[in-house]
Amino acid sequence: MSIHENLLGGPPPTHLPDDPGPRELLASGATPADVAARYPTSSLAWARLADEAFERGSVVESYAYARTGYHRGLDALRRNGWKGHGPVPWEHEPNRGFLRALHALARAAQSIGEQEEHERCSQFLKDSSPTAAQVLG
């Protein structure tokens, strides 16, 4: 039995491939806008843009950035075998951009009164990674 075998018979965890470029640029002090422009498929860059916008009170802008990061992440997950459900572990660092964007989308949706979307995204985050829901919550 492998360490990654799912004993409940559900889908295996999805582990996105590592793309260290955006993460390294952000860590070196590059702005999320510059990173998103250079790496437009990076959910992490879009999630960081969403966080910045939310912190300054630009909730609609945060929502738009988060939605972009979320959809970029869904695209990446599907390209890597995800079938619309199953674990997306927080413990695998390349997954964190998507999970952060999903959290940011839930937060912004709640702030603009989109309660159904907030609930859907919050549940999706919990279902994908209980650890992410706890860390980001």
From TrEMBL:
Residues 1-29 are annotated as: Disordered. It comes from the Bacteria. It holds the Pfam family DUF3151. This is DUF3151 domain-containing protein.
